[in-house]
Every structure is written in structure tokens, then in C-alpha cells.
Amino acid sequence: MTPNLNLWLIPILPLAGAAINGLWGRRSSRQAVTTVALVFSGAAFAMALWVAARFSSIPLPYQEFLAHWIRSGSFGVDFAFYLDQLSLVMLLVVTGVGFLIHIYSVGYMEDDPSYYRFFAYLNLFLFFMLTLVLANNYLLMFIGWEGVGLASYLLIGFWFTKDSAASAGKKAFIVNRIGDFGFLIGLFLLIQHFGSLTFEQVFHSIAPMSPETAGAGVLTAVALLLMVGACGKSAQIPLYVWLPDAMEGPTPVSALIHAATMVTAGVYMVARSHVIFERAPMALTVVAVIGTLTAFFAATIATAQTDIKKVLAYSTVSQLGYMFMACGVGAFSAGIFHLMTHAFFKGLLFLAAGSVIHAVGGEQDMRKMGGLRSKTPVTFWTMTAATLAIAGIPGLAGFFSKDEILWRVYQASWIYWVVGIVTAFLTSFYMFRLWFLTFFGEYRGPTAGTAGEHGHSAHGADQTHGHAGIHESPPLMLGPLVILAILSVVGGYVGVPGSLGGGNRFEKFLDPVFRSTAPALTRSITLPAKPTLRNNRPRVGSRKPATPLNWFLLESRSQRHCSAWDWHGRFTIATLNFPRGSPPIWVVFMTPWFTNITSTSFMAKFSSSPWSRVQRTFYGRASIKT
User: Is the full-model pTM beyond 0.90?
Assistant: First the structure.
């Protein structure tokens, strides 16, 4: 007998918290508002963990019917929830990161006069986002889709007495409506041609259809319209313009909505609709091109920003581009993997930025910061972990997810790979620029507590926290930073690809969702057979065990071997010959700009392309051979 998981409780709990604080919060104490907000959001997270614990014992996909909603002839839509591997990942990300940000907000917003209203909106957002990821049909998903847009509007314009905040809220609302119009037209086409909006029925009808390789058909039209909606919600070209202005809202809003959850809704929707996109090669190409261009374009803008939150905003747009790049080449699991790791390190980056803003009294201009390393040590070390993760330093979460994307996009087109590598360099550059400007050198700003976001100057009063000078954040704010820093370090190990010696458990976990697909874009790469293993580790002759970082680990200065396991478990070796006396190669490749080159995608590039048969000059007479 199938157990009843009562999935409906997960979104209802934060809705109840929003209703209580929204209706009675003005007359309640701050402690009561805090208790309601944390208890109901924490209960939703606990419920999600309970569902995850029972996940292996239930038949999948699990569906939970609540009530009939619309009946018109043969067309019908129900209030029903849908749980599979994909929705479970989203469920845990939304509730887990959301709960941590609720805790952080208690300390960050403690002096705000509209404290109760903020938590009512935050809980309301959780309700709509959970409805979006648990819906079993496109119409219920669209309700959650519109709801998170409403919550975003309310939270971006939270300090509505400030003109820039009110304008930013309206801009986000209007731009998202443009995308939502395309989404809605796509739903109308699904109703017209397939007579349903339920995922199972729509995908069952589409599954026997062949990819539309001869031209654009109904599936291509539906996929492109859905992508219009995704561009609006996930801030892709040309509808990215609302996200940087959305930084006018409180920093916890930026962390929750504009980094970890809402902006990833478009990626989730495309992944959920993979059956449609895989049979529309033209639409998949559009997805990949838009993601690639957005990733690069936003990264170039981030390099010139001076507002610490604006740097992270454009970085978010760029990283979302990576996710769409992966989805556009049919690597949906890689896109979702990066979505998860991005929630960890980008949520941490925004919260750490909020801690910095808190420390300096509301200043957001990095040119007026500096020297904060010793004065805010916990914030410094946690932000360091997030910076290293997003830069792609080997061993951290961002390295595994980003490298998986780069490896998969190369199989579709080396152009995607080149743009992705260049974007990775730019990401490392602007993140370390932020890191150095904020924490190193001498403090260049005015006395803390003068004005700014955290002083609530938007409300026309010079209110501060009452702390003298630059100070570390309270424990309520630092706790979530530490937890997210740990996840930013270890979160990627659930998806270590076979090319790096792992089993790619994350991809295998999502495989039942995506396995019944007909890839529209594939190009296989044939690599040499596996070598003999000794002690379960690959060896090259009598040298040390080979790893993707053998550039600097092997004993010989005159010859170094680089090797990697590709995602099919096959093995490739590249030999680098350097003249004796040349500069040690590790000096170059240990820098953040080159960490992604030492990865699997680099090995694939030089072991499978015509370049592998050509001597390429590097460091004088050094050459690369295979």
C-alpha cells in the first residue's frame, strides 16, 4: 500500500505563518513574529526531510490528489502534487536554504519598523515556491510561478518609501509579465494539441513523437514559448534587466529569491519539460545559445561593478546562463546539479555581503570598504569559502558542477566550451576583485553607522544598530553563514563525475526522471581504453597515481602526465614536455583563473580534437601531445 506523505502540508505551513503574521503581526511582539516565522518555515523543512527519509520506500513518481479544480468537457485540471527525484531536490533546496535565510533575517532586520510585514512576505514566498516545485500540472505550476512573482514584487519594493526601491519592484513585476505571457501562450498550445496540462498525460502523448528535425513544429513552438517564460523568471537575455535593480530590496531577499530559489524556477521548468525540449532541437539550440551569451555577457558587466550586491546580481545572471547552457545541450542533470551547488555558494555570498553591509553601517560601495578581514573574521572566512567555490577551485562544490557542464557542452559544440571557459575566468576575476576590495588593504570608508540600506535611510530616519565602529554580525546571522560555507565546500561531492574518480551519484539519482528521453543534441567523443589499475588507482608507468591535477603533482620537472576519467568512465592521458629549467607549471595552474582548465573538460578538448595531433607551443619549447 502506498503511504500517504501529506505533501500538501509542506506549502501550507509557510502559508499559515504568512497569514498569522500578516493579519496579527502589527499587534504582536517581535518575539511572537519571529517565533511564527521560524516555526512554520522550519516545520516545512522538517517535513521535507521526513519525505526524503521515506523517499526510497515509495513508488515513483508519487502523486497526491487534493481536489478537482477545473472541468470543461474532456479537459480537466486538479489540485494535485507530484513528487519524483527532481522535485525532491528542489524541495530540499527551497526549504533548507529558505529556513537558513529566515534565521539570518531575524538578526538582519531586527531594527526595521515593518519587521512583521517582512516575515509575512518571506513566508508567502515560500508557499508559492513550494507550490511551483510540487505541482503535478502546468496550471498549478503557473499559479506558483505568478505567486513568486508577486512575492518578489512585494519584497523588492519592501522599502517602498524610497523611489528606487518602488521603481525596482515595478520593473521586476512588468518584465516578468512579459515572460509570463509567453509561458501562458505555450500552455494554451498544450491544451489545444494534447488536451491536458498534467505532466504525465502531456509527456505520455509526446513521448512517441520524433524530434522535429525537419523544421519547427508544435513542440518547437511550445518549447520556445516556455523558454520565453524562463527568460523572464531566470533573468536571461533579453529579460535580464530586472534582476540587478532587484538589489534594492533587503539583502536576505536577494539571497533567497534572487540567488537560491525564484530565479532558478525557469531552469526547473525547462528541466521538468525535458520531454518537450528533447524533441525540439531548434528550441534546445536557442536555450543553449541564450544561456551561453547570458553567461558571458553578465560576467563582463560584473567585472565593472562597484556595488557589492550588483556584482553578485550579475554573477547570478551569469551562473543561471551556465544552467541553461547545460539544459540546452540535453544535460539536464548537470544543470540541476549546478542549480543546487549555486544555491549554497551564491546564497552564502549574498548573506556574507549582508554581513559586510551590516558591519559598515549600510555602505555597499566596495571602494569604501577594505581591511575588514580582521574585524569580521567569521564573515571573511565564510565568504572566502563561497568565493573559492564559485571560482571553481578543485574540490569545492562549484568546481564539480561547473566542470560537469563544461564537459557536457563540449560534446555539443566546442564554441560553447570556449565561451564557458572564458566565462569561468571572468567569474574568478570579478569574485576575487570583490574579495580583495572588501577584506584587504586599509579601510577606505566613513565611520560605520552613517546611512545606507541597513540604517533604513529609505524610511527617512537615521536609524542604526547602535554599535560603535565596524563590528562582526550577531550569532543569528553567522550561524547560517557557517552552515552554507560547509555546504559550499562539501556539497559537490554528491555528484563527483566518473572522470574525476567518482560515481556521479547525483546524475544517477536523477536518471529515472530524464532516462526516457531522445537526445536532440549529442556528439560522442571516443577516448583511449582504460589502463591497468593498481590498488584501484590509475597509474602511468611507474609514476605517481594520475589525477586531473597531475600538472604539478608528479615528480618529474621535465615531463608531466595529465589524466582524467571521462563521465563514461573511460581514460585519457596527455603528456606535457617542458624544457629543464622552465618555470614550474604549478605556479600558473594553481591560480583561480586556470582551475577549470585542469579539469575533465580540458582533457577532453585536447584528447578528442584535431589539436591533439598538433604540437602546441607553451612556455618556449613545451608542447602538448597525446
Answer: no
